[in-house]
């Protein structure tokens, strides 16, 4: 069974950058479409970015377009989310998701952007 572990979150000033990692184990991640979601306090979980199995198609939420980049390293069985020009409204717990016929979630990593 696939297991996902996110890392890379933390506290950063507005305008700064972070790179989130989502390390997979138990199966090869290249079989899965992957996505990043986030959930801010008091808000519903929302999609941030997603990529197909070959990452030949990627999509981004309007709020992060031009600032965030999703990528994967299949040799390391890891998916990344590079986040640049961070804003306080990007503050949330970020979750990694992998899906084929089944859906798997990581435990989340906290990102806090100070003004």
Task: Sum up the structure in keywords.
single chain, four-stranded antiparallel sheet, globular, seven-stranded mixed sheet, 115 residues, mainly beta, 0% helix
Can you give a write-up of this model?
The structure is a single chain. Strand 9 and strand 10 form a beta hairpin. This protein has 115 residues and is mainly β. It is globular, with a radius of gyration of 13 Å. 30% of the residues are buried. Helices cover 0% and strands 54% of the residues. It contains no helices and eleven strands. Strands 2, 4, 5, 6, 9, 10 and 11 form a seven-stranded mixed β-sheet that branches. It has a four-stranded antiparallel β-sheet with strand order 1-3-8-7, with no helix packed on it. The mean pLDDT is 95. The termini are far apart.
Helix content: under 10%
User: Low-confidence parts lasting 5 or more residues at pLDDT below 50?
Assistant: none
The N- and C-terminal alpha carbons lie at a distance of 40 Å
- Count of individual beta strands: 11
* Beta-strand content: over 45%
Shape assignment: globular
The chain-level structural class is mainly beta
Order of helices and strands: EEEEEEEEEEE
Gyration radius from CA atoms, angstroms:
13 Å
The major β-sheet equals:
7 strands, mixed
Nearest-integer average pLDDT? 95
What's the total helix number? 0
Task: Reconstruct the topology from this structure.
Blueprint: E1 3-7, E2 10-13, E3 18-25, E4 33-39, E5 46-51, E6 58-60, E7 68-73, E8 78-83, E9 92-99, E10 103-105, E11 109-114
Parallel strand pairs: 2-11
Antiparallel strand pairs: 1-3, 3-8, 4-5, 4-9, 5-6, 7-8, 9-10, 9-11
């Amino acid at each position: 069974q696939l297991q996902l572990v996110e890392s890379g979150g933390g506290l950063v000033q507005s305008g700064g950058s972070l790179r989130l990692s989502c390390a997979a184990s138990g199966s090869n991640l290249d079989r899965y479409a992957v996505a990043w979601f986030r959930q801010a306090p008091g808000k519903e979980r929302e999609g941030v970015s997603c990529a197909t199995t070959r990452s030949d198609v990627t999509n981004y939420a309007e709020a992060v377009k031009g600032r965030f980049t999703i990528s994967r390293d299949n040799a390391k069985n890891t998916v990344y989310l590079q986040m640049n020009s961070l804003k306080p409204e990007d503050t949330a717990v970020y979750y990694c998701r992998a899906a084929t016929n089944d859906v798997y979630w990581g435990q989340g990593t906290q990102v806090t952007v100070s003004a």
